[in-house]
Design goal:
The protein has three helices and no strands. The protein is mainly α. It has one domain (5-86). α1 packs antiparallel against α2 and α2 (29-54) runs antiparallel to α3 (58-86).
Length: 87
């Protein structure tokens, strides 16, 4: 394999840091929400890569729970922003 596991983890970590820019600077709440969703997906990818590298299924369980909480969190934030916009 020409890509090492560590290189992929570092790549996703770097992209997560770059994506944090959208969360901090995003001109609108929608941009911040998209940035947060992107960071969540990248952290999920890092957890799956570590699980495959270390041959530990516990990381996959953590990734699944993390993904569920991330999805519910996105729904809560979206609902809050919609209610805030109606006022």
């Amino acid at each position: 394999m020409w890509l090492s596991w560590d290189l992929m983890v570092y790549f996703f970590l770097a992209m997560t840091i770059v994506s944090m820019y959208r969360i901090v600077v995003g001109p609108s709440p929608a941009d911040r929400l998209i940035g947060l969703n992107l960071v969540s997906a990248q952290v999920l990818a890092i957890l799956v890569i570590i699980a495959a590298k270390e041959h530990l299924s516990v990381y996959l369980d953590v990734a699944l729970v993390y993904d569920i909480f991330g999805f519910v969190g996105m729904l809560v934030i979206t609902r809050y922003l919609l209610q805030k916009g109606e006022r």
